[in-house]
Amino acid sequence: MTGFFITGTDTDVGKTFIAARIARSLIQQGFSVRVRKPIASGCTRQADGSLLSDDALRLQQGANSNENLQEICPYQFEPAISPHLALQQAGKWVTIEQLAQSCHPTLGTREALLVEGAGGWLSPLANDGFNRDLAVQLRLPVILVIANRLGCINHALLTAQAIQQSGLTLHCAVVNQVHDKQDFSSGLEDWIECPIYRQEHTTDSEIIPLADFKL
Ligand SMILES: Nc1ncnc2c1ncn2[C@@H]1O[C@H](COP(=O)(O)OP(=O)(O)OP(=O)(O)O)[C@@H](O)[C@H]1O
Ligand SMILES: C[C@H](N)[C@H](N)CCCCCC(=O)O
Ligand SMILES: [Mg+2]
Predict the structure, then answer these.
(1) By percentage, how much of the chain surpasses pLDDT 90?
(2) For atom 31 of ligand 1, which residue has the closest CA?
(3) Binding of Mg(2+): at which residues (predicted)?
(4) What is the CATH number of the domain that holds 171?
């Protein structure tokens, strides 16, 4: 299966921002793209009482997806907390296996699957596992999004090490300029064994493909 699991050094590092741009890059390379955000917390309550995952919406837009938001993000919760706590508060029991099932569309030959977790690699994602466990279950190569802020080298290397210990391939890393400030990641290329892409801080409203990204 062609595709990637998108993780990050933390929550709020640009996983969705970058995943949407990777989707555009894949479309440019002739793929159609399926996206999944299997579980999302911090969803907003709509006027009609339904919940909206902003991540799912941005992934849908980035992939020009014709799948509906419920297919893209089947488990949505309002509190902006760890998914395992959101599940507990809602009195629900959801497993990694169930999340994996929701990520298994039948893919065509020129289709790619992008799955975004929640939080970072060892953030809980279900009642019985972490982001890591879903990526392992899906057997997808991993893309690591690194927020370019002080401390990012430690967070990036810890996460890269954990990804490799899981047996999965770290396909690439993306140093994401979440703030238009200086580069705190200098030297990372010497210590992390995968291609590193860089995304500048941008306010472009349209979704520009991630420069030079290769499948
Ligand atoms: N390179 C960038 N330039 C400008 N804004 C950015 C950039 N990267 C991320 N952002 C903004 O920072 C915020 C956090 O990004 P995003 O939602 O992609 O993080 P995330 O890692 O997906 O968070 P979560 O863990 O909640 O899923 C968003 O408002 C996003 O638009
Ligand atoms: C609400 C937030 N934006 C994310 N969707 C969830 C982040 C969970 C982090 C859990 C943790 O590692 O402490
Ligand atoms: Mg996100």
Answers:
(1) 91
(2) 17
(3) 16, 55, 116
(4) 3.40.50.300
